[in-house]
Amino acid sequence: MKLSISKKHIMLYSLIVAASIICYIAFGHHLSLILESIVMDTDLNMSQSLLYMSAFFLSFIVTDKLYDLYTKRQANQSIEQKAEWLIEGIDVKTRRESERMMNALLVHLEDYRPYETTFIPTIIKTSVKVVLIIAALFFIDIYAGAILLFTAPFIPLYYVLVGLQTQEESVKQATRFDNIGTLFLNLIRGKDTVKNTDSKQTVTKRLEEDNEGFVKETMHILKYAFQSTMMLEFITILGIGLVALEIALRIIIFENISFYTAFFVLLLAPEFYNALKVLGTEFHNGKLALGSYDRVQALIQQPKMNTAYRGQTTEEAVRGHNLTISHDDKILLNEADFSFKKIGLTAITGESGAGKTTLLRSILGLHEPKSGQLEVLTTDIGYVSDQVYFSDTTIYEYVSAGSHDASKVKQILEDLNLADSIDNLEKGIHTPIVNHDIPLSGGEIVRLKMARVLIERPAIIIMDEPTEFLDAKTEQLVMKYLSELKQDAAIIAVIHRRQLLSIADDHYVLSDGGLKRGEPA
């Protein structure tokens, strides 16, 4: 079996385990000598043997603990590295991929953790322990060594077969979990659509089907776990029983074995089988973890978004050269040339579905164009999206992003006429946002999203429907604020409400694959 660990660490793990097992065997040797001396009244330097026995037992405990600590540290570092690879890969183009990425990061990667923290160390520890114990037993009692050598392969062989089936079921379970999570999140986002289109029965049926499938795959995995545990105990008891029978026959009938040898064999044999038993259990868990990691690996290895189309300009905020943008098979922008000024407000209008938001995402680097070149002035870009998800945080933490003090946050909220509404909340700016639940109206949430971006005063501000849900009075207030802000920054805004055109310096219309200058307001 190929382990996902470097040869250097395999060697180091093996050396620590070997030192630990050698200490245990030496401990068993001296313990057997001491008991033989007590029972059979043989000559022995008792104080010296007790000293050696204590020293080797202590060394065994220390090296075994060292092995556990070291392997867990290495495993956690490896998991962190894989998490970083996942985070680096968050350039996904759809919400479905985003949700699968978060499932991989928060669920599947954690389910995989036991593979590196427990399974790999157990495989190495058991392999070294089995080899050393059999080697020792062949020197002590060749018959007992032969019994162990004959019975040992049955445990790993059985668990290889069970583990392979477990991994396959685990992949199905992880896939089903992703489907349930994605469907549930889409249901939450589209609950109004479900209600208005009377689709409750269809959505409920889909959720029930996925849930039943998830339970079915889980029960299959549990079935394999129970079967493997029963067989494991049976083979272990049988192996130890055969060794005990061999010892009993040689003591009672053949009378050709010493107390020392008999006790030493009976001390090492259970340790041998216990190691294989632990290996069997962990093999099942390891394959279960690998099933989850298959989902992680698929996302880590997926092709990264090509960013070669993005260059840098010095004269304009954004410039497009022969730019073609598509979504699925639909061409939204076809071989367009355009430029947006680095100071002022550029408004973009067009029919619904024309590709306005997709153009903004291309400027942000979130959507790869089909062809052409896109040059951007700077990476200092703020984005006010028409959709945003609040993590479990507070209003202050959301707006400040950990970079601004409370007075600065209160000032930007005052500028956007949000201060009174938030001050009326029980905890003011420190009101928690839990499960995406924020005690503000739709228009207030729009302004809160704007506050998070505007407090940074970036060189380029991209806005998608910035005055959506705003009443006339608040819209005028936001327009006044943007009129002041555009004196020092480039504001690129997709708009539906024509009032915002009155403060726009440039107006473009996206239609029929072209981006053309529109009429001023």
From TrEMBL:
Q: Which UniProt keywords apply?
A: ATP-binding, Membrane, Nucleotide-binding, Transmembrane, Transmembrane helix
UniProt xrefs under Gene3D superfamilies:
ABC transporter type 1, transmembrane domain, P-loop containing nucleotide triphosphate hydrolases
**Where are the bilayer-spanning segments?**
12-30, 50-67, 130-155, 224-245, 257-276
Indicate where this protein is primarily found: membrane
Q: How does it sit in the membrane?
A: Multi-pass membrane protein
Q: Which GO terms describe its molecular function?
A: ATP binding
Q: Name one Pfam family in it.
A: ABC_membrane
Q: Where is this chain's protein located in or outside the cell?
A: Cell membrane
Domain ABC transporter, residue spans: 318-521
Domain annotation ABC transmembrane type-1: ranges: 117-288
* Role description: May be involved in multidrug export. Transmembrane domains (TMD) form a pore in the cell membrane and the ATP-binding domain (NBD) is responsible for energy generation.
PANTHER family referenced in this protein's UniProt entry, alphabetically: ATP-BINDING CASSETTE SUB-FAMILY B, GLUTATHIONE_L-CYSTEINE TRANSPORT SYSTEM ATP-BINDING_PERMEASE PROTEIN CYDD
What is the official name of this protein in its record?
ATP-binding cassette subfamily C protein CydD
Organism taxonomic ancestry = Bacteria, Bacillati, Bacillota, Bacilli, Bacillales
